[in-house]
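$ ./design --mode recover --in tokens.txt
reading tokens...
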């Protein structure tokens, strides 16, 4: 074989390259932005969350020697960098979802909207911290193994997941496409807790252990709710359009009212309401409403009568 002839390996590479570069092969799975703007960066969004985490929980994350006298300098600097990075990522998300503009044009509307949205997001951070402080208190008070609130902040996957979620939820409320989901998935990958950024969660939310918890996009969760590992708050079925495709945006996940406890492995599906103060036992499969104060015990079929006794 001469030096100019392709080897067997080279022939394989050529054949596979030609196949993968065929438009018929990649047209359904490739991305080419009409505005010449790259996809959002998970690494950049991870840096943004890290900066915001250091601002929301000073001393636990970021500079270990942060003092009250120097805090304004660090917080201002961290917020400025986070805002600049976030505006760029929001612009990428907007351009990803935008159908306007000619091929190759950069959308000035998206750039201006991204900067404005980043500032609006920053204005919501004090409320995010307030909510997270209630979550930390619930974790410390609700877990006998917790030795301090600081342990919950620094060690608990539930607080990490909730930090991502409460940030992602504010971006979701501001109408930012794609970015909130990436932020949520960063936490999902790290903790095993899957919370869609659309889910609305009230104060003092505690996920004990947390692994395997799934909370759907249209869930509405009240105050003082406690959820254990392996709980699913999901959809039972999807209304379909004329072409048989699921209709987007329809409320399809549970409403969980104040003071509810959901024990490990319970699965609650559909737009049902779990009433205030109800307790759902471990491994229960539930597709119906539960009245306030109701008890659904482990091992009972879904249509069994509610137990009015105290506790599980």
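writing sequence...
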């Amino acid at each position: 074989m001469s030096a100019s002839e392709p080897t067997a390996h080279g022939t394989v590479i050529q054949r596979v390259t030609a196949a993968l570069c065929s438009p018929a092969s990649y047209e359904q799975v490739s991305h080419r932005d009409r505005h010449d703007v790259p996809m959002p960066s998970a690494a950049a969004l991870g840096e943004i969350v890290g900066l915001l985490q250091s601002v929301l929980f000073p001393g636990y994350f970021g500079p270990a020697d942060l003092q009250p006298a120097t805090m304004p300098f660090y917080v201002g600097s961290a917020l400025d960098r986070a805002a600049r990075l976030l505006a760029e990522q929001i612009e990428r998300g907007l351009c990803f979802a935008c159908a306007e503009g000619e091929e190759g044009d950069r959308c000035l509307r998206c750039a201006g909207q991204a900067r404005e949205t980043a500032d609006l997001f920053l204005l919501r951070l004090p409320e995010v911290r307030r909510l997270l402080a209630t979550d930390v208190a619930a974790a410390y008070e609700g877990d006998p193994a917790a030795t301090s609130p600081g342990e919950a902040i620094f060690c608990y996957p539930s607080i990490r997941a909730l930090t991502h979620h409460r940030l992602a939820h504010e971006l979701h409320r501001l109408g930012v496409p794609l970015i909130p989901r990436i932020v949520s998935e960063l936490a999902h990958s790290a903790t095993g807790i899957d919370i869609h950024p659309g889910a609305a969660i009230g104060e003092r939310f505690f996920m004990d252990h947390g692994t395997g918890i799934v909370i759907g996009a249209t869930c509405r969760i009240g105050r003082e709710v406690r959820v254990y590992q392996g709980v699913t708050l999901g959809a039972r079925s999807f209304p379909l359009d004329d072409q048989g495709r699921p209709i987007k945006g329809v409320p399809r996940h549970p409403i969980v009212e104040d003071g509810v406890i959901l024990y490990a492995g319970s699965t609650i599906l559909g737009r049902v309401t779990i009433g205030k103060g109800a307790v759902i036992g471990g491994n229960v499969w539930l597709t119906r409403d539960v009245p306030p104060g109701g008890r659904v015990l482990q091992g009972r079929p879904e249509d069994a009568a509610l137990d009015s006794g105290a506790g599980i």
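exit 0
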